[in-house]
């Protein structure tokens, strides 16, 4: 017995030592942890933040936002010129920019992309709001795109639409069924998609043809994690180099860790609580099964009033957030709106109770008025915790909540099918508020088949739509800011959703692997989830020598583990021999 | 003599633990005020290490972990017991019916049993608890519906042995019907076996409940040991190195499951005849 064990041990040790040392000079890879699933790699259909983030790396937009101050800068086009009546815009695509397969990027690619969206309803799924006002898009030559709009449109320099290569996409017959997975995927951005295994990883290589110059490292990998806890662990151990959207507790736990740098940034995301206002399709057909009580704006106001936003920020966000109000987060100072003293809905359960009584929903004998369902995402710390608070708040005003935490895709299904009463949601906003405001117009509601729109909350309000159209053609910025604020006030007043908090973006990276990341804006900005790809593109690897030191550890660890297993096996066998026959089975 | 000592050593220890656990589960809800476990009402700081005020520290919201463990005992034991009773109930019914009647009925029932036997129980339970609305009932149902086949097989075997005995044949010859044979002869001989089986099934049901809750499939509104582990994992107890949030519910599961197993084994030694 003993002899055998020794022999085994000897073999294990030799195997461990004989393993070749890891090569230090492989490609430099930036590994990024992601938790959210990808809904589609097709840029016309991709709505999830994770998908648009990858989309930004693959495709440039017509214009871009500078890293340091988010002003409009060169994208596919480098010059632009509006006509005197602001109805015709001429963009110039300079010579020399190339797709990743070497074909030149021309104005015809731009015209093709926009025209595809104008002619194909499915192609408008993700970014339709940008082109609803377009009259025509034509490429007069390889360098010039002319866009005519029906009414003056202020967001012409903020068209967040990935421009796709015409020579690839003109062969696509059905946008709805096209997965965009012909690897490597031809693109114009700083990275080229080379491999995607759903739920496991996304691999991109630096685009050597990128017109700003190739990135300073070779490959960018997105690695899936089941939950952010595992991702935080992986960062701590150096398995990934960059993570974001950490929970406050996780962020705190990384304080003072060697080789890890934390980045607390003012985020451009907000978290909201959707209140189903009686969902209807674009044509006015009711869909879903939202509680009829919520059609009454007084009920929605009462619910909003019963939610203690301060407590949520303090206890659930642990202070890493700002209290919610309008649709535009405070990081965009110019457009951000705060309710005035008279507009402010102060947390007041007593007033909410009175309002519900007055609205015709008195408490029944058991103290309840009517029950509601609250849908959230299972595994998202915020939803699990905030739902406890909401449950308490709602039961205080006689509304028992049935909390349902479901998977990402299920949540998306429930919200698009409007089979919810209350639901957690959240959006990332852009530099120009048009997109986030446009989500709440009547036209964004889905068609009869439930497809073809990205409404957020099934909001449809004439006043709001009128203001939306107004701001879209207001070229005096001061006046436009005024209208945008009025819209937010209207939204706040009608409450199809309660903006709960503007989350701080909590990120962390391995500063021993990557020395520097470009943040946007330069001061207090984010690395991931930017209005651009600067964070990934501008990452600078640390000295390679620093990386090589860790390579022997896995060998030692494996050898050690084998040793432990063998010793344990030996002990168990030995004990089993000693054990009496009576104890065996 | 031998029987008694066999039971009294390990079995008595297990039984003692179970009595304590049951008492805790029954009395705790009466003593703990609802405010102490309501995340919106607690005032203590989160992630406190164990100390004089909070014996086992506090969780991510400032609730006392000791109180949570005590409160969770009720849910875990309740689900464990009801699921075990449900599972053993189905198993016994199927086993006796297929063993007694034989023929086509037995064939059909056994094929169903085989089907559930080869299906991975955890996967089936996860599928069930995803489809059905969230709640304690769903968890009980999911566990009960997936863990009965082994009981059915065993009870059927016992039924067949009993029915081959001469006294059953005599009862039949004297005109005893199906009801008489099952009720008077088969059931009494099967009951000890079923009892032992139930005790062991409780142990596995508690583990199954903890697994489902840990995976986030439990009733989100109830505190159970599995749910505590789920929350600890979700809210960063591991990166926080908050061992006091992870260990107590884990150890509680281990201890109670061990106790049920010890009692079950001891009972088994008592009821099964010596080989």
UniProtKB/TrEMBL annotation, chain B:
Keywords: Cell membrane, Membrane, Transmembrane, Transmembrane helix, Transport. It is a multi-pass membrane protein. It comes from the Bacteria. It is found in: Cell membrane. The chain crosses the membrane at residues 68-96, 108-129, 135-155, 190-215, 242-267. Signal peptide: none annotated. Residues 73-264 form the ABC transmembrane type-1 domain. CDD domains: TM_PBP2 (cd06261). This is ABC transporter permease. PROSITE patterns: ABC_TM1. Pfam families: BPD_transp_1. Belongs to the binding-protein-dependent transport system permease family.
């Amino acid at each position: 017995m003993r002899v055998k064990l020794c022999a085994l041990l000897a073999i294990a040790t030799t195997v461990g030592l004989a393993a070749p040392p890891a090569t230090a000079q492989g490609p430099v890879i930036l590994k990024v942890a992601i938790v959210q699933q990808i809904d589609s790699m097709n840029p016309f259909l991709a709505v999830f933040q994770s998908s648009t983030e990858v989309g930004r790396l693959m495709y440039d937009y017509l214009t871009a936002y500078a890293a340091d101050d988010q002003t409009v800068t060169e994208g596919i086009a480098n010059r632009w010129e509006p006509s005197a009546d602001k109805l015709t815009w001429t963009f110039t695509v300079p010579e020399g920019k190339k797709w990743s397969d070497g074909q030149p990027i021309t104005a015809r690619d731009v015209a093709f992309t926009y025209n595809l969206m104008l002619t194909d309803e499915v192609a408008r799924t993700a970014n339709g709001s940008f082109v609803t006002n377009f009259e025509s898009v034509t490429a007069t030559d390889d360098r010039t795109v002319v866009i005519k709009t029906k009414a003056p449109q202020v967001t012409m320099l903020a068209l967040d639409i990935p421009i796709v290569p015409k020579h690839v996409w003109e062969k696509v017959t059905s946008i709805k069924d096209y997965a965009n997975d012909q690897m490597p995927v031809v693109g114009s951005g700083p990275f080229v998609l080379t491999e995607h295994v759903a739920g496991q990883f996304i691999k991109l290589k630096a685009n050597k043809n990128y017109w700003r110059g190739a990135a300073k490292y070779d490959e960018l990998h997105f690695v899936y994690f089941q939950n952010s806890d595992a991702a935080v662990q992986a960062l701590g151990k150096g398995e990934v180099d960059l993570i974001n959207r950490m929970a406050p507790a996780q962020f705190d736990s990384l304080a003072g860790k060697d080789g890890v740098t934390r980045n607390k940034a003012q985020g451009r995301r907000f978290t909201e609580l959707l209140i189903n206002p009686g969902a209807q399709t674009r044509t006015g057909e009711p869909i879903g099964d939202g509680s009829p009580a919520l059609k009454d704006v007084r009920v929605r106001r009462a619910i909003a009033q019963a939610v203690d936003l301060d407590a949520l920020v303090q206890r659930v966000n642990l202070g890493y957030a700002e209290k919610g109000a309008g649709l535009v987060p405070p990081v965009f100072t110019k457009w951000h709106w705060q309710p005035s003293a008279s507009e402010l809905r102060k947390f007041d359960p007593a007033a909410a109770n009175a309002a519900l009584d007055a609205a015709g929903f008195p408490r029944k004998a058991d103290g309840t008025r009517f029950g509601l369902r609250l849908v959230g995402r299972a595994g998202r710390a915020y939803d699990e915790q905030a739902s406890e608070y909401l449950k308490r708040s709602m039961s205080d005003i006689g509304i028992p909540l049935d909390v349902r935490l479901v998977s990402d895709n299920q949540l998306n299904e429930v919200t698009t099918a409007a089979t919810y009463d209350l639901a957690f949601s959240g959006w990332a906003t852009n530099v120009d508020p048009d997109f986030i405001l446009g989500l709440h117009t009547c036209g964004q509601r889905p068609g009869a088949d439930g497809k073809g729109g990205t409404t957020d909350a099934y909001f449809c309000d004439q006043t709001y739509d009128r203001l939306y159209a107004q701001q879209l053609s207001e070229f005096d910025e001061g006046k436009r800011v005024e209208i945008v604020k009025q819209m937010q006030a209207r939204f706040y007043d009608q409450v199809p959703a309660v903006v709960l908090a503007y989350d701080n973006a909590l990120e962390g990276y391995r500063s021993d692997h990557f020395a520097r990341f470009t943040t946007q804006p330069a001061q207090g900005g984010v690395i991931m989830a930017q209005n651009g790809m600067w964070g990934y593109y501008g990452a600078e690897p640390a000295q390679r020598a620093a990386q090589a030191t860790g390579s022997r550890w896995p060998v030692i660890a494996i050898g050690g583990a084998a040793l432990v297993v063998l010793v344990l096996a030996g002990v168990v066998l030995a004990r089993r021999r000693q054990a009496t026959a009576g104890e065996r089975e | 003599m031998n029987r008694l000592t066999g039971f009294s050593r390990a079995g008595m220890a297990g039984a003692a633990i179970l009595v304590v656990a049951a008492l805790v589960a029954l009395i705790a809800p009466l003593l703990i005020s609802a405010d102490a476990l309501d995340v919106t009402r607690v005032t203590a700081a989160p992630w406190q290490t164990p100390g004089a005020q909070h014996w086992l520290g506090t969780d991510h919201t400032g609730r006392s972990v000791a109180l949570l463990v005590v409160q969770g005992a009720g849910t875990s034991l309740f689900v464990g017991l009801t699921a075990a009773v449900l599972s053993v109930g189905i198993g016994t019914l199927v086993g006796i019916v297929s063993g007694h009647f034989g023929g086509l009925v037995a064939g059909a029932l056994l094929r169903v049993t085989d089907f559930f036997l080869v299906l991975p129980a955890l996967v089936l339970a996860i599928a069930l608890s995803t489809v059905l609305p969230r709640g304690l009932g769903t968890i009980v149902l999911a566990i009960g519906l997936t863990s009965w086949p082994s009981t059915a097989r065993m009870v059927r075997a016992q039924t067949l042995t009993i029915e081959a005995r001469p006294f059953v044949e005599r009862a039949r010859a004297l005109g005893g019907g199906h009801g008489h044979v099952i009720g008077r002869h088969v059931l009494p001989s099967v009951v000890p076996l079923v009892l032992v089986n139930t005790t062991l099934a409780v142990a596995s049901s508690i583990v199954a409940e903890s697994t489902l809750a840990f995976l986030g499939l439990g009733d989100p509104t109830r505190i159970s040991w599995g749910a505590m582990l789920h929350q600890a994992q979700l809210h960063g107890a591991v990166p926080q190195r908050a061992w006091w949030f992870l260990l107590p519910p884990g150890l509680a599961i281990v201890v109670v499951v061990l106790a049920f197993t010890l009692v079950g084994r001891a009972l088994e030694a008592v009821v099964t005849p010596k080989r």
